[in-house]
Amino acid sequence: MRCALFVILLLPGTLIAAEVDAASGLIKNPGWEQVRAHCGGCHSHALVTGQRADRNTWLDIIRWMQATQNLWQFQPDVETQILDYLAASYPPQANRRRAPIPPSLMPEVVQSVQ
Ligand code: HEC
Predict the structure, then answer these.
(1) What is the pTM of this model?
(2) Which residue ranges form the domains of the chain, and what is each CATH number?
């Protein structure tokens, strides 16, 4: 009986794949507090959550802000947590544009009246 109750209580948490922090909009994956602490001071966290990139590109973005936008240096372990979080939570998206419609399904071209 106690066991069944435990499972029911756990379920809602496990069903929600990506919980989002209401205040920042950040996905609550491991490391999200570091990103909340370091990445919302100069611009909205929405600039972070709207970006998609692989780990190297995230690092490029951070290096660019450090070189040109006064972003501070991170301790190596903090930087690793931030990059792990960003690469896992906001990875590059596959091209979602649909394939072209096959010519056989297209209407016949109507010749314009001269
Ligand atoms: C010291 C200030 C500062 C901090 C802190 C900061 N940024 Fe930025 N960031 C900027 C500025 C300035 C821009 C340019 C904003 C613009 O173009 O309007 C920017 C732009 C961006 C962009 C858009 C880049 C693009 O190519 O358009 C992303 C993504 C981003 N920041 C992510 C982050 C992340 C992730 C962190 C934490 C690791 C962070 N920022 C922390 C200053 C900062």
Answers:
(1) 0.78
(2) 25-92 (1.10.760.10)
